[in-house]
Amino acid sequence: MTSLLSRLIRAFSLTLIAWSTWAQDTPEDLYGRPDLSRPEYGQFDFLRGEWLSSITIIDANGTRKPLEGTSDITAFYLADGRTIQTCFRAAGFYSTDVRAYDETKGVWRAHFLNATAQRWSGFEVQYIDSAMHTIVLGGFSGTEDFDVKTVQHNITQDSFQTDVFRRVKGSNDWVQTYEMNYKRKLYKASGPRC
């Protein structure tokens, strides 16, 4: 009887331990968390999760035309809490980038990849006046005759906006070409999938 009781107590204890571990893995937790040892590691915490984006094209005359369809974005912190990965999916398009904070330079270093289109580049991102500013020399292929600038701003818990600009190489004049508006979706119960 004592042996059976001991086994039941042990099984019950293991079940409680397993349940408490499982209960801590909320969908939000599965997307990682920023390392709290430096506030800069949390600068991209707003991006963590699942997003739906609509895109508006802005032509040279300033005329705005919404693109049909939407894009899905997934962002999550890796195990170190200092690196964040994003995945961008749209009809016929996929890209990913990985970003980590460079403590010496005070900027985020990022690497963009789109293997289907054979485009990749490295760039830097800075947090300025409550917005994330990115300049990609040579565009996202790194070889274009123009540079790209993005500014992520109007950041809230459930939305943010990215303005995309171009300039001809050698010019200081940025022209807005896109506006992207992001709305938060529910975290996936299984965690992020790229």
Instruction: Provide mean pLDDT, rounded.
Output: 90
Strand-pairing-aware structural class: mainly beta
Question: Looking at the structure, what is the overall shape?
Answer: globular
- Describe the main β-sheet briefly: 10 strands, antiparallel, barrel
Q: Report the end-to-end length measured between terminal Cα atoms.
A: 52 Å
Helix content: 10-25%
Q: SSE order, as H and E?
A: HHEEEEEEEEEEE
Structure description:
This protein has 194 residues and is mostly beta strands. Helix content is 14%, strand content 47%. The chain contains 2 helices and 11 strands. Strand 5 and strand 6 form a beta hairpin. It is globular. It starts with a helix and ends in a 9-residue tail after the last strand. The model is unreliable at 11-23 (pLDDT under 50).
SSE layout and pairing:
Blueprint: H1 2-24, H2 27-30, E1 49-58, E2 64-66, E3 71-77, E4 83-90, E5 93-102, E6 107-114, E7 119-128, E8 131-136, E9 146-153, E10 159-168, E11 175-185
Antiparallel strand pairs: 1-2, 1-3, 1-11, 3-4, 4-5, 5-6, 6-7, 7-8, 8-9, 9-10, 10-11
